[in-house]
Write a structure and sequence with these properties.
The structure holds two protein chains of two kinds. Chain A is an alpha/beta fold. Chain A is built from eleven helices and 14 strands. In chain A, 34% of the residues lie in helices and 21% in strands. In chain A, strands 1, 4, 5, 6, 7, 8, 9, 10, 11, 12, 13 and 14 form a twelve-stranded mixed sheet that branches. Chain B contains four helices and no strands. By secondary structure, chain B is mainly α. Classes of the chains: A alpha/beta, B mainly alpha.
């Protein structure tokens, strides 16, 4: 495609970005074929690159250095290594426009990333998250069983990525019920009360993958208990690292969920604090799909060239959402594999992929890792 | 249905005075109306008017004026 001539004036860039973004938001979330998506999303990403270059001097330097290194067309969308958000406070707004600072998961031993949000970016994040989750939940808010302890969100000293995730998802529920006690043991009276009340209707269950496995499914199993929520939908996220160490894969996870709780619909999603809102959602076939306003590229871990279908590599994630910080194109430290484009049997279009784990030797991170008393190191090949 | 019921729902949920509840008051404009309080407000409006708001409504309810519009959609007329 030809590169549109975009004038380098800030207000015009922003208004062109907003027009293109709103138009893309009006499309079907998982219905765009890849060629259409490229035509719609690329101009948005290029516009964001120009906008952030104008507003964020660190980002401008990185883009400049990348372009000076040569060989690439000037409109190539540059990616930032995810750890840069831990080293630098990257923002494209003035201090008085800062509305919220999101911290990625980070325990005391780690430096958390700081993601700077203004109100428009925060609102865009919410709108995108709602559009994506409506694809699996519908518009109605369902009675919600949260597989975590109430203190996770109540105690401000514990406030972390897990609390932020629970609060974000609480939007989609009603009659919020916590399944765990503050010591992470199951709260049987709450669980049975919820199941008795809502056994015959759709409900939402949400938790972080490791918490769901360790403190919910394992606890049900040990207690020899079964619950019955046949119309439930389980959403879970936060990384598989600790489950890989226990040799639990997605298929085992889903089978265990269904056999112990009766929940047949189970969706993992992949997302990160650096790109809140535009999450990648697992389809009925078990693959993650990019929504309309986001995309994924798999790159060779050594030379960072684009990998083909079936080749393992590092995941680059693209999001049309952020205007307050230059996080629209990020090279993660996660390994994944692209399975194809537009031909997933679930019917959703675009790219579909799996996350295979963390690149060896990177530091530990992930939402559920904030509850990690003893974690085995990631072993390549354990997937 | 009365405007005072709507005002009272905002007063109860956000812990603000009735004088602060004007059409122009917007989400996140004051500390008392943050995302946590927003969910309390939604529950309060649902109880007060005996309705079930969906996720679009929650996102769209960005001001007191917008709240009135959304309640109209549910045949609630807080005038």
């Amino acid at each position: 495609m030809t590169t549109p001539i975009i004038p380098a004036s800030d207000p015009l860039l922003l208004s062109e970005y907003l027009t293109a973004f709103d138009a893309l938001m009006a499309e079907s979330v998982f219905g765009l074929e890849q060629t259409d998506k490229n035509l719609r999303l690329l101009p948005i990403l290029r516009g964001l690159q120009q906008l952030h270059s104008l507003r964020c001097s660190e980002f401008e330097s990185i883009v400049g250095a990348y372009q000076a290194a040569g060989g690439q067309p000037s409109d190539t969308v540059v990616y930032l290594a995810v750890r840069l958000f831990k080293l630098l406070e990257l923002k494209s707004i003035s201090p008085d426009q800062v509305f919220k600072v999101l911290q990625s998961s980070g325990t005391t031993a780690q430096t958390p990333a700081r993601i700077i949000l203004d109100k428009p970016t925060s609102q865009r994040q919410s709108k995108v998250l709602v559009a994506i989750l409506q694809q699996v939940l519908g518009k109605q808010r369902l009675p919600m069983l949260i597989i975590d302890a109430p203190s996770t969100v109540r105690d401000p000293s514990k406030f972390n990525a897990r609390a932020a995730g629970i609060q974000g998802l609480a939007f989609f529920g009603r009659d919020h019920t916590y399944a765990l006690n503050d010591d992470m043991s199951p709260n049987w009276s709450e669980i049975h009360g919820f199941c008795d009340k809502y056994a015959e209707q759709p409900v939402l269950l949400f938790g972080f993958t490791f918490m769901v496995w360790q403190y919910w499914l394992s606890a049900l199993n040990h207690a020899g208990k079964f619950i019955h929520l046949p119309h439930g939908v389980l959403l879970h996220s936060g990384g598989w690292k600790k489950l890989e160490a226990q040799r639990v894969d997605n298929a085992t996870f889903k089978q265990t969920v269904e056999s112990l709780t009766g929940v047949k619909r189970c969706h993992n999603f992949y997302g990160m604090a650096e790109q809140v809102g535009s999450i990648f959602m697992e389809c009925s076939e078990g693959y993650l799909h990019a929504p309309h306003v986001a995309d994924v590229i798999v790159r060779d871990p050594v030379d960072l060239s684009m990998a083909g279908v079936g080749e393992q590599g590092l995941l680059q994630v693209l999001s049309g959402v952020p205007t307050s910080y230059p996080g629209h194109s990020i090279l993660t430290e996660d390994l994944g594999v692209l399975h194809g484009e537009d031909d997933c049997r679930c019917g959703w279009k675009g790219k579909y992929f799996s996350v295979l784990g963390r690149l060896p030797k990177t530091e530990m991170r992930g939402c559920s890792d904030t509850h990690a008393p003893a974690v085995k190191p990631y072993r390549p090949g354990a997937v | 249905m009365s405007e005072s019921q709507l005002t009272q729902a905002f007063v109860t949920a956000l812990g603000i005075s009735a004088e602060q509840v004007t059409d122009e008051l917007t989400y996140n404009e004051i500390d008392a109306w943050d995302s946590t309080a927003h969910m309390i407000l939604i529950a309060e409006l649902e109880d007060t008017f005996d309705i079930m708001l969906d996720t679009d409504d929650i996102i769209d309810m960005s001001s007191v004026a917008k709240a009135k519009q959304i309640l109209h959609k549910y045949q609630v007329n807080p005038e």
